[in-house]
Amino acid sequence: MVREAVDRVELVLPDGRTIDYAIQVSPKARSLRLKLSARDGMVVVAPPNLDRQKLVALVTAKGDWIGERIAGFDAVRHLIPTEPVARPQTFDLPALAEFWRVEYKPTRSRTVGARIDPPGRIVVAGAVDDVEACHAALRRWLARHATVTLSRWLANLAEPADLRYTDLAIKNQRTRWGSCSTTGRISLNCKLLFLSRDLVRYVIWHELCHLLERNHSERFWMHLRHSEPAADSLHGRMRDAWKAVPSWAQRGAGLVL
Known about the structure:
Layout: E1 2-4, E2 8-12, E3 18-25, E4 33-37, E5 41-46, H1 52-61, H2 63-76, E6 90-93, E7 98-106, E8 112-116, E9 121-126, H3 131-158, E10 167-171, E11 178-180, E12 185-189, H4 197-209, H5 218-227, H6 231-237, E13 254-256
Parallel strand pairs: 3-5, 7-9, 10-12
Antiparallel strand pairs: 1-2, 2-3, 4-5, 4-13, 6-7, 8-9, 11-12
Helix pairs in contact: 3-4
Domain YgjP-like metallopeptidase: 30-237
Organism: Candidatus Accumulibacter affinis
InterPro entries: UTP_pyrophosphatase-like (IPR053136), YgjP-like_metallopeptidase (IPR002725)
């Protein structure tokens, strides 16, 4: 059930909640896309040739799915800045006991890159007046750094326990610290480096134990508590773990559904 407003459309979700969303027509859009933003709320990006009535019907049909995504977004909404974030000058990576200074070097390049020079200092060079481009370059550097360090960490825990995963992917996800696929592929969030070592170890063990038990049954928790005796207390601390992640490390200002 929908009721059009002047600039926005009201949507009643299957659970009875009511939300409203904006429709943004984009010549570049090839299909319907939904975004959640801390500043703009829900935005539906649509191609110019999509009939408005059909658009509303398509959004309404996704009501259950939208409700689930909004619930996940609300859990991390406070972490997404609504105002511009400055370029970081320093930052800590507690997981590795590392402290980094950041130097910004303008060049004629239209792009921005980040490199280590020397150890303990990151040089961000290029069109450094573009703050978001600097953030993106630092996020790419963070992902590279996490690929090297977390892959070693994962192997060091898995091998003695004879737990065999098929592959490792390092991602920059907004709402998940890690996952384990049915094929044994483990994904870890590069933002884990902002957490304490015991929390990172907990997340890695959590995903490794999914190689033994795919769900979160009592058997899964038995395996996890055997591998990490402090699992219960660490699990509780993970609820606030996102607060340790600086705003610049968050990928974008919203959530693409």
